[in-house]
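Morning!

As promised:
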Amino acid sequence: MMAPLYEFGRFGDGTGLLIAVVLGIAFGWFLEQGGMGNARKLAGQFYFTDLSVLKLMFSAIVTAMLGLFWLSWAGLLDLSRVYVPETFIAPQLVGGLVFGVGFATGGLCPGTSCVAAATGRKDGLALIAGMFAGVFLFGEIFPAVGHFADSTARGAWTLPQALGLSYGTVVGVIVAVALGAFAGAEWLERRAERPARRMKIAA
Amino acid sequence: MTMDARRRPGVERAFAVAAVVGGVLAVIAGSPTRPTRGSVDVTELARIVEHEEDHVTATELAKWIRDDKRGLRVLDIRADSEYEDFHIPRATRVPLAEIARMPLDSAGTYVLYSEGGTHAAQGWFLLRARGVKNVFFLRGGLYEWLEQVMNPHVASTTPQAERDSIRAITLWFGGKMTVVDSATTTTPSALDGELSAPHKSDARETIRKIRRRAC
């Protein structure tokens, strides 16, 4: 049996949506359990006091990346049927900046704002309202900014293509970067937990 | 630090080791797809091709499908849209690239067809290289099927028994047999020469014509 199961017609649209709902709930549940519905905790990464988000993101990336690589290698997954979002360099740089400013200001990203809202946090609800307002506004001004939004298109552009390296090498490098980031994050968090000692040294 | 209380350094270390092993092996593997290696006996293949044992006629294939031949798999290697438009009954659409890695039943009988015959013949070679013994292709491709099964033109001088056999096959697949004067069948064309020179016309147009006339 070859994955992606939906792509190969193993189940229809209805079952696909049902699976999406189950996976979505599980995703939200685990985000909340990991403390990702708490804006203070999320904002902690910008002060280098709590780098849970960085560790969570790298864990997810490394798990999915190794899973996809080895499932494909074992002949259980057709990577050519896995959707790769298209790259638009300039608009995505601007979008990334807007996203970063919003994340640092509100302390939540789109997924975690939904998790926060589900637990009754008002900041989560406010951010979701802002997200929908932004989507609506962007739709309204699209005729004016559409040209920019479609500029510098690179299609489904992957790191192996951009760097001219093999998939395996990129996988190895990203694993190394992730482990380095974990070690660095732990070191930063340990340093943040000992303010008293730091102050003593400073004095 | 409630989060820290839940942390298990042993588990974290195990995950880190697994990631390192997975990453290092990925660098060694290089590509997420394994090359599919096959080998062929070139002399044997040359003999098969020379003795014309590498293909079936459309009529033979039609009989196999009608008689529900055990282990028969008919593979259509044309584009998705062409397959949707028209395909031989029981055929499954399989891109040529997929043939290189799809799971195979070595005891099965595979018949490949494309629009003409070239791609199917290339697919035949791939399957032979992957160790399938009973693999054939439709030499004239879909055109041959349309001409011999869906819309055959039979000379009036053809023996009655043979005509009945062709009519039975054609009717089974929803086609229409036409009996023509023996003098006009010297050129074995079903559609005023269009099928005998298929590459000059668009396949979809031909299928539309066949449908209008026969189906």
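Confidence is low (pLDDT under 50) at residues 186-200 of chain B.

Hope this helps with the figure draft.
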